[in-house]
Amino acid sequence: MAQLRRDYEKFDAAGAQIVVIGPESPQAFSAYFTKEKLPFIGLPDPTHSVLKLMGQEVNLFKLGRMPGQIIVDKAGLVRYIHYGHDMTDIPANEDILSLLENLNKESI
């Protein structure tokens, strides 16, 4: 999440709305977002209901839920999915911002 926070202004300028979905309880999730002053939306998903809808992997041998990035366009269509194979497998912000730029060009 620190990676997303670092470039939040760039994502905002690209018209993106960041939603972070995590496996923690609502109380733990709220406490973390408040402590870290995260500028985006956080959705606790302790029962993994959203995870199951998105087909995201849980691997208990790799500390639980693997990272995933999904871009949904303004029409509600999923345009990009990346599911990480470990906790460090996260696309660079620059790559995601480039994808957003291309999607924005398509919608013109």
Explain what this protein looks like in three dimensions:
This protein is α+β, with helices and mostly antiparallel strands. The chain has a single domain (2-103), classed as Glutaredoxin (3-Layer(aba) Sandwich). The chain has helices spanning 2-6, 8-13, 26-36, 49-54, 93-106, and strands at residues 19-22, 41-44, 58-59, 64-65, 68-72, 78-83. The strands form 3 sheets. It has a two-stranded parallel ribbon. Strands 3-4 form a two-stranded antiparallel sheet. Strands 5-6 form a two-stranded antiparallel sheet. β1 (19-22), α3 and β2 form a beta-alpha-beta unit.
Please supply descriptive tags for the structure shown above.
Glutaredoxin, globular, 6 strands, 108 residues, 5 helices, alpha+beta
